[in-house]
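Trying the structure run again after the queue cleared.
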Amino acid sequence: KVPYGQGIAQTALQRAKEKGPPKCAEEYDLPETRLLLGIFRELQAIQGDKPVFLSCRLAAHLVGMPEKYGKLNNIINMLQADGLLVRIAPGTEFKSPRYRYVGGE
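Done. Tokens:
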């Protein structure tokens, strides 16, 4: 559950910071990448079996690099290539891409 008045992304960020990064994040040097994996883990826990959605701009803001959302998009693409995220649906002009986090705890 998400506390009233708090968005899912903010809740996922708070939980990711409390729990720390998942084990799969240990191989990445950038703390932003490790935090992003934690955010995706927590978003998936909140959503259950449903895909999660997170725009690059919001993700960049959450991990503390709002002006570098293009770089964050590259990180998300890397996480897909590494098999930790699966893109369920591409983004459109009006919707963020949908992902499934498969990196485990």
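Residues 91 and 97 are 4 Å apart (CA to CA). Worth checking whether this holds up in the mutant runs.
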